[in-house]
UniProtKB/TrEMBL annotation:
InterPro entries: CHAD_dom, CHAD_dom_sf, CYTH-like_dom_sf, CYTH_domain, YgiF
CDD domains, A to Z: CYTH-like_Pase_CHAD (cd07756)
Highest taxon in the source lineage: Bacteria
CHAD domain sequence ranges: 252-566
Name of the protein this chain belongs to: CHAD domain-containing protein
Length: 567
């Protein structure tokens, strides 16, 4: 069984309004009594299920007991779920799962893979080392809603309001976090109904998308409930990367399937870090900075992919996608540009903070790097940006693009072979575009453009040097995005050539980045010279560093130019 659903966090101040709206939607405007859900979650001490993005729970649902295995689906909206009726534990006995309930099908395969479970010798999994790590105590209120009546995207969704807490630890070490979530699950109809319903509730009540499961949050809470040494020894289960990629060579993969894989990878990266960032306290800037940095990287990757699609289309290699898919991806990239600019405002402050400290060490006035006027649409903090309507709307637009891009939502990473695409291409003479041709043609063109500009680096002013850096970074982002798809069968030589090229490009980008940071700092100090004479010392010092930094960047670019494009 596969769920198609989205989950949203509810601000504390909006909870009463959300309850009232659910009551208004209920039959006779009267909500049914909430369902009491009390669950215990199990994993191995070294978190093998969490690392596989799976969760195993035993839950009391009113008068019934249900054991559930949840595993990562192929998409933000999709999760594998196997529910099995079970019995309450004998009096005085602790809860324990019985893996035999999940025998057969994808659930058994997932447990065999993650736990090395061997049901032939260990039917119930007693030897797998499962222990209870955390628990949940919830009240669930449910209402069904028809969405998009009379349209192509008509559907019925269930709105489930979960209120309660996640609990971990015992006695004085027990910790808890509150839960205020709205899950929107497809009951029947088109999956776009889930997105449309989510967009409506986000805009009206300020909800934000959250792809972290209760299991993920419970695992993190359980880590904090143990001592520091034990916590440090636990493997990290948080990963922004998608669970699986098509196991095929580029020669047999269609360009549309490669596009879908790239979009999914961007979405997985972005939603993972939005969810992590939005769950932090507003004032915890130290914890927010590295997560915001990774979120910004995901936004850059999405924008690079959007530009790559537009560029290949302009040069005669259009993808066989619907107009809605193209427009939704463009809208998502526009939101990504705004959010990246906001995150860049905070990133610049952090990246330039070393300069006044260095000035002080040199005995010069330690004047902080002047801060430019904040963008008019700047959020209060990176955490607020992650919780913003715009951040969630970006994700909903990407999901819409994936839906409109074709394919079965519950198998969105299933490979579309070139021969399959040929069957649906427009006209009997239409030639399908392979992923290898699409990627190689576009990457060669981008590489050639960057190489031409790099050879004239001596003649580039600051703006054109920064433009080169942006284009080279986009090249790197697209290369990284599709790196798992390059066939391993090309041999060791081709693999090493790609690795050498990637390393040289990274070094060139590092050198260009250092030059750009100090160029920005110099411009900001110059802008305040008339108001603060102390800026003169900083300007003189930075100006003296400009020539050596340009030489370093030039050498790094020359080394990169010695590596031919390996694709």
């Amino acid at each position: 069984m596969q769920e198609i659903e989205l989950k949203f966090q509810i601000p504390a101040e909006a909870l009463e309004t959300v309850r009232a709206e659910l009551a208004r939607l209920a039959p006779d405007q009267a909500l049914p009594p909430p369902l009491i859900l009390q669950a215990a979650y199990f994993d191995t001490p070294d978190r093998r299920l969490a690392q596989a993005r799976s969760a195993l729970r035993v839950r009391r649902e009113g008068d019934e007991w249900v054991q559930t295995l949840k595993a990562a689906g192929s998409h933000t909206m999709v999760r594998v779920e196997d529910n099995r009726a079970t019995q309450p534990p004998p009096a005085g006995q602790p809860l324990s799962p019985r893996l035999s309930l999940h025998a057969g099908g994808p659930a058994e395969a997932a447990l065999r893979l993650s736990l090395a479970w061997q049901p032939e010798q260990d039917a119930d999994g007693a030897q797998c080392g499962l222990v209870q790590l955390y628990a949940t105590d919830m009240r669930r209120t449910r209402v069904q809603l028809a969405v998009g009546i009379g349209t192509l995207h008509e559907g019925v969704v269930e709105l489930a309001l979960d209120e309660g807490a996640i609990l971990a630890g015992t006695g004085a070490d027990q910790r808890s976090v509150p839960v205020r979530e709205l899950e929107i699950e497809l009951i029947s109809g088109h999956p776009q109904a889930v997105i449309d319903a989510g967009r409506d509730w986000v805009q009206r009540f300020g909800l934000w998308l959250d792809t972290q499961t209760k299991a993920h949050r419970g695992d993190r809470l359980a880590r904090w409930a143990v001592d520091g040494d034990a916590r440090a020894a636990l493997p990290e289960s948080f990963s922004p990367r998608p669970a699986r990629l098509p196991a095929t060579g580029l020669a047999s993969l269609s360009a549309e399937a490669a596009w879908r894989t790239g979009v999914e990878a961007c979405l997985a990266h972005i939603t993972a870090h939005i969810s992590e960032l939005a769950g932090l306290p507003e004032g915890d800037l130290a914890a927010a900075a590295p997560v915001a940095y990774q979120w910004r990287r995901g936004l850059r990757r999405l924008r690079a992919l959007g530009r790559f699609v537009a560029d290949t289309q302009a040069h005669g290699a259009p993808l066989n996608l619907s107009p809605v898919a193209h427009l939704s991806l463009q809208a998502a990239c526009a939101h990504a540009a705004v959010l990246a600019r906001q995150l860049g405002h905070w990133r610049d402050q952090d990246a330039l903070a070393w300069i006044p400290r260095k000035l002080q060490q040199l005995g010069l006035p330690a004047l902080p790097v002047p801060t430019p006027p904040a963008p008019a649409d700047l959020s209060a903090s990176p955490v607020a940006a992650a919780r913003s309507t715009q951040a969630t709307e970006l994700c909903l637009q990407v999901l819409t693009a994936l839906l409109a891009g074709g394919g079965d939502l519950t198998e969105v990473t299933e490979v579309t072979e070139v021969t399959d695409v040929a069957k649906v291409a427009q006209g009997p003479e239409a030639a399908p575009l392979s992923a290898h041709a699409w990627l190689s043609d576009g990457l060669r063109r981008w590489h050639a453009h960057c190489a031409r500009t790099a050879r004239r680096f001596d003649d580039l002013g600051p703006r054109r040097a920064h433009r080169l850096r942006r284009r080279a970074r986009q090249l790197r982002d697209v290369l990284d995005l599709f790196a798992p798809l390059w066939p391993q069968a090309e041999g060791k030589h081709a693999h090493e050539a790609r690795a050498r090229h990637a390393h040289a490009l990274a070094k060139a980008l590092d050198a260009l980045g250092a030059l750009q940071d100090e160029t920005v700092a110099l411009a900001r100090y110059r802008a305040v010279l008339a108001q603060d004479i102390r800026a003169q010392a900083a300007c003189t010092w930075l100006q003296g560093r400009c020539k050596p930094l340009r030489k370093q960047a030039q050498r790094a670019l020359r080394r990169w130019l010695t590596h031919s494009a390996p694709w």
